[in-house]
Amino acid sequence: MDTHRIYEIRCPVHGFIRLNDWEWTVISQPAFQRLRRIRQLAWTDYVYPGAMHTRFEHSLGVMHTATELYDAIKRNSQDVLKADLAYNDAGLNRDSQLVRFAALLHDVGHSPFSHGSEDLFPRHDNGGKFRHEEYSAAVIRSELRDAIEKHPLNANYGFKADDVASLIEGSADAKQAVFWRDLIDGQMDADRMDYLLRDSVHIGVQYGKFDLNRLVTTIRAIPSPGGHPPQIGISKGGVHAAEALVLARYFMFTQVYFHKTRVAYDVHLRGAMKELLPGGHFPRPIAGELKEFLGWDDWRVLGLLAAGKGGEHGHRLSSRHHYRRVFDTPEISTEVDLELAEAIKKKLGTLLATEEFASKSWYKTGRPDIPVVDDDNPKAVLPLSKYSNVVANLKANNKVFLYVKPEDVVRSRELIREVLEHGR
Amino acid sequence: MADNNEARLALIPALAGQSSSGYIGRTALMKYMYFLQVLRKVPLDYRFTLYSYGPFDSNVLADLASAESLNVVKSDLATYLGGYGYKISPAERAEWLRKRSSAFLSHHKEDVKWVLRTFGSYTSVELELLATIVFVDREAQQKKEKIRLNDVVKRVHEVKPHFKEDKIQTYANHLIKEKLLAHA
Q1: How many CB pairs under 8 A join A and B?
Q2: Domains of chain B: which residue ranges?
Q3: What is the pTM assigned to this prediction?
Q4: Is A345 on the interface with B (CB under 8 A)?
Q5: B1-118 adopts what CATH topology?
Q6: CB contacts, 8 Å: B53 with chain A
Q7: Could you identify which of A225, A233, B101, B181 might form a hypothetical disulfide with B82, taking C-beta atoms 3.0 to 4.6 angstroms apart as the criterion?
Q8: Average pLDDT for A176-200
């Protein structure tokens, strides 16, 4: 084994992604290879046929992007990292590899068809539902522990699997490295940057495109006054690139992630999975249940659906016979719009198959709060919205969709017309 | 609006409107929600994880954005040397949402009063520190770790190295006085 070998993997977004032998060993583990069988965008291919890409290539892309961002911050803000976060050169070198692992493995605990089936995660004893990051952390601590801890390159780092897991799940055990969580799960994180670009490439749309290179050259650790920790932001030169990132998210939400038909298939996926999973929910991310969880991937679900299982929703998935949207509110709904939706819902009664809310989507909208620093006057820090009218006027999408079964569309539209014309 | 996030949204103008100044900042909003959920068991269903600026859940800001869209609250930018903040205050439609969520707000009236009384006088930096101390304390409790207050202070220092341990200890003492730490 040549432990110093560098591997290169072709990527449709970033060109070549380079991995060291340690990372290669990790991605070769069955728990990571499983991501080849988890589609990034669930059943989006029923709307955009190109959406067949997987969490495997996204995870590699996030590692690549996180590294670009990390290296740029280290290059641009070394003084801040050393003064405010007590880093030295060795610490920065160590956390560079830690961030790469956290980015690479942040999605390793995804359920089949990604976010589409997360509603079926079981609950903690305290009532809250498990999150996919908790599954990722559990997979890292069990299935990937040896690959992380026993590789010869780890002699230089002394990593424990828990170090990677703690950073992903946001535990105090991550110590000063929690600063870098914003690159994994934040407003300008590598996850978002990669999925916007990657989803656009595969789907064949331009909505998610933005200038990643410009963001990389302008990203900074910005010192905050009065005892706040530094924040990750950009210099003024990156304002329009950041603006484009925000708009990319907005466009992708409205055109792809919250597309009426795509959302209907999330509903059918949840319904089918509820039928397929013993007890109607996934196994928990704990010893004795995690392996069973990892046995669930898209292939298994597709096999069960092909065998005619999954109930009514399974049949709708197999036959592409989805619920139909009969009413929706504007992207920025007022109380009047929302009360109209409620009146229609009441009128539809049992014809209403489901209602779906943009505000509850995994993908978020609204105005981000990205700090912008003037390099000529480092004391001048303002939010992106102060530099961009477009961003300043972005509001959260609170659209509501009402769906009925295809056979109920005609009758439902009649009832809706009654409400619209007569207010009842 | 039949969205069950409604109660969470209604809490935002309630907190802002009942604060002594009539507005709150984003950090205060985030940490008040954290304290309400963790220390008072208000069922908000947020998932707070740790960042260098303390416990955080992006869904709190998503709720704030939704509340702004509905004109339930407004956020005014306030700038100062080296930084900026927001003043979140009730807006025109706050009363509409208050009426719709009156059962929830009435049930948690004392919790809102408590969080404002206990934490309302702290600055955003202090709130970040206090919330981080509580997070570290509760995380250790959840993991059934047998640690002492001194260990909590050390862990907080590792996360927030710009705070000296004696300062962290001082703020931990404030929480102990209020009987809010498990490892006191």
Answers
A1: 145
A2: 1-118, 122-184
A3: 0.95
A4: yes
A5: Arc Repressor Mutant, subunit A (1.10.10)
A6: 228-229, 231
A7: A225
A8: 95
